[in-house]
Design goal:
InterPro entries (chain B): Nus1/NgBR, UPP_synth-like_sf
Number of strands of chain A: 6
Order of helices and strands of chain A: HEHHEHHEHEHHHHHEEH
Largest sheet of chain B: 7 strands, mixed
Largest interface: A-B, 90 and 78 residues
CATH topology of the largest domain in chain A: Undecaprenyl pyrophosphate synthetase
CATH class of the largest domain in chain B: Alpha Beta
Organism (chain B): Starmerella bacillaris
Radius of gyration of chain A: 23 Å
Structural class of chain A: alpha/beta
Structural class of chain B: alpha/beta
Subcellular location (chain B): Endoplasmic reticulum membrane
Number of helices of chain A: 12
Strand content of chain A: 5-15%
Oligomer: heterodimer
CATH architecture of the largest domain in chain B: 3-Layer(aba) Sandwich
GO molecular function (chain B): ditrans,polycis-polyprenyl diphosphate synthase [(2E,6E)-farnesyl diphosphate specific] activity
Strand content of chain B: 15-25%
Order of helices and strands of chain B: HHHEHEHEEEHHEEH
Helix content of chain A: 40-55%
Shape of chain B: globular
Number of domains of chain A: 2
CATH architecture of the largest domain in chain A: 3-Layer(aba) Sandwich
Shape of chain A: globular
Catalytic activity (chain B): n isopentenyl diphosphate + (2E,6E)-farnesyl diphosphate = a di-trans,poly-cis-polyprenyl diphosphate + n diphosphate
Chain lengths: ~325, ~280
Amino acid sequence: MNYQGWVQGMEKSLVSTLLYKYPELPQHIGIVMDGNRRYAREHHASRHEGHSSGFETMSGILAVAYSAGIREITVYAFSIENFNRNPDEVEDLMNIARDKLGELVAKGGVANKYGVKINVMGRVNLLPLDLQELANEITEITKNNTRAVLNLCMPYTARDDITHAIQETVKDLQGKIRNNPEYNISKIHDLKQDLHENENKNDNETSTLQSKAANDDTSNKPNSSNSSILESINISEETITSNMYENTLPLDLLIRTSGTYRLSDFMLWEITMSTYIDFVADLWPEYSPFCFMKSITKWLLWKHDWLKNHPQNCHT
Amino acid sequence: MQEPKSENILPKVYGRLPSNKVADFIYTLLASTFLWFYTSLYRLRESYRHVSYHISRRKYTNITPQQVRTHVAELPKIPQHVGFILNYNDLNGFKGVLEAATEVCAWTLGAGSSRLTIYERTGCLKREDLQSLADVFTSSLRKYFGRQNVPHIIFRKGREYVEAGDVGDTALTVQFLSECDGKPFMVDLAKEFSLELAQGNLKEEDITIERIHKLTLERVGDEPDLMVTFNSYLDLEGFSPWLARICELYCLPDNDNNFGFQVFMEALKNFANVKVNLGS
């Protein structure tokens, strides 16, 4: 092994060991791996080399994270919007995915070594057929792994995920609505009117967060005439969350590299007030295990401050 | 909550490092030292920033739209649509939120952006009568623009809108958003789609990104180019997930929730250097 490889190996071992000793770790981390192309440009390398370096970085960070005890990682590997790129580059990215996805589940790969279940998340049907088969295969091979989870978002956008979740929610409810003994078209029309009135009421009559919660309760409560149909469309935020592509753990930390202060259509639904967003200036291939340790440390400090300001969440 | 650390994963954790009791003690010591050192540096930087922000904030006290125009004149680009997240508690209730809202409106007019989103989570602004809000904003802007020279502004909440101001073409459109426009709005849409599907007015394949986006534009509003928060860290406070897709997010690190033009100015500087290349 060359000297550089030895140093990198030692850095990974040291960082994962130190993180393992931390008082607390985030349980679910989302990563936007941005900056591969800029890295290639800055190092006078080809785009292919930039993306390959990005994958190597991902494997290294995953190894550190899983060995330290992090339960779930979601990485933004390929956006639906990326199909708008130059066809050669898209083909190149697909080739990298073909080569590297197999490495994840191979002997000694991340899935095998750390007992990681891999989910390919997003509009998989947009991928070339052989990649779809590969995605199904790695999901199948790793489905019984329980120690940790890796969600590979490809091809994914959060708006697509939200739309998919709404579609699934609506689809699930159709049987319940149509089989309802009170179901008829004119009644549905009345219910739509009620819904619009409730929507306006939410906007106009909410006075404080507490009373908003009360309003939400009442808006979900059926009125006497339309009770059982309205009961059957009792949709909540949780219903939609449960119909997302993957039902993930709450997102604790979101890391975005390359100094960009945008979410770029990634996990918009999952980001809550208890998510710490770390925008990092390094390009993704330059993001080392030590940078990862800094992100986790910032999360730890943020959480300390956040719990001070939100004492009601101390149990989480 | 972190899972109990089982012994059988230890060899994988240590990797190439020695694993015995002495080594284990050294690792614990190293981790604690690093945490202590990093925390000290972090807090030191925090204190330094508090002081430097306090000094530079003086530069921008009682800033007028005309002064804002001078400050932004050198920036290569300005966002067309600016959003602000105002926190009810940090601004000491409704009165503070209203004052802050009129102030950000003046800044936005000065900066030359044509649209403004004011997001306040609890909905204390959105709950107000739109005409009354427009009157308060206009009378507050008179101190900068004079009695008869307030630019024409459209105030909007949902589908309702009111026009105000004295002169010229529409200089600014202000939209008020609250937490109800975020996930609860998506839930309402799902309910509406369920009923329309049951009625036979909609097919499953009609529930598309484009449809949801169109309805969001009509009933909530559109996405800002730049979203500014006065928190020390980025907290979207329940802002609509649909409208946070590609907007530039800005918070001034360690600002400690201080409301002031300095944050907006830094956000504008940051935005001016941004290149957006979505997907391509």
